[in-house]
Amino acid sequence: MNFYFPSEPSAEDAAPQIPENPIGNLLNPLLKDALSLASNPMTANMDKGVFDVASEVGAALQSRHVENIGEVLKIAALREAPTETPKEQPDSGWVQIFLKFSGDAASAVEHEVWGRLLGLEIAEPKSVSRRTLQYLHGMDLWEIEAFAEYCAFAFAFESGWRFMLEGEAARREIWSYGREIDLTQHWIDVGLLSSEASTLTLRNAVGLRVSYRDKTWEVRLNQEAASEAVAPIRYRKFSVIGQQISAALSFKTFNGYARNLIKALEGQGQAVFSPLSDA
Question: Which helix (H) or strand (E) is 156 found in, with range?
Fold first, then answer.
């Protein structure tokens, strides 16, 4: 196949175009900070387009990787051990992948979630999937922090599976703490929440329990309400990955949120929430 060029590119066109303020001026400070280097890791002759990366970069990167793993392991080591020693251990492949990915955890927030995740897997092998490790490794720091904030408003079924109540009442209560917290659509889009909402089935429900932290309620149908006159109670479950990551996060408790939301849902007439603890 032949390609036709109207003319040969000139030497001037082929030469690298150097801006007056190249981003290269910001690279050295960035790399020095990220790798804790004492000297500039890169030297450049911009006129000739020659760039040299110091050999210390590779060693510094490996050193930071080991330091990060050390912080993660320290957090895991300080977690409470299960009452009974597990009958099995996480498989070696899982451990190797964990060490590979957690070495890139560069902040205290990331150290914490990776350390907690390791503690969960040691306490209950096969409770954290390799897919979850891969997913967490790809999360931005702001996403980890924002998801932790979001999880503070999650309820859980008796099984421990987390879910978010949906609807105007739930949205209003979350927004009272900050609209920026309500990133529901983002978490759906990236796979941490189920893509489909569900409805609490109360008509034949017996012993349905939901909890918020250490407070639990039994939920039953309000027999005095006309079914056609009340809106259904809708919720959205966490995905498997969302559930596993949320179990490793540390987040606040907002008892006022739970109390106000349950009061609002009861006010809609469909359900009665009977506290089984001091709610």
Answer: strand 155-157
N-terminal to C-terminal alpha carbon distance within the chain: 77
Any idea which residue has 């590979």 for tokens? 100
In 3D space, the residue among 231, 275, 257 whose CA is nearest the CA of residue 170 turns out to be: 257
Q: What percent of the chain is helix, strand and coil (3-state, nearest 5)? A: 45, 15, 40
CA distance 217 to 208: 8
Residue 114 corresponds to which amino acid? Answer: W
d(CA 256, CA 199): 24
CA dihedral 191, 76, 157, 233 (to 10 degrees): -40
pTM, to two decimals: 0.82
**pLDDT tens figures, 44-80:** 665 666 677 777 778 888 889 999 999 999 999 999 8
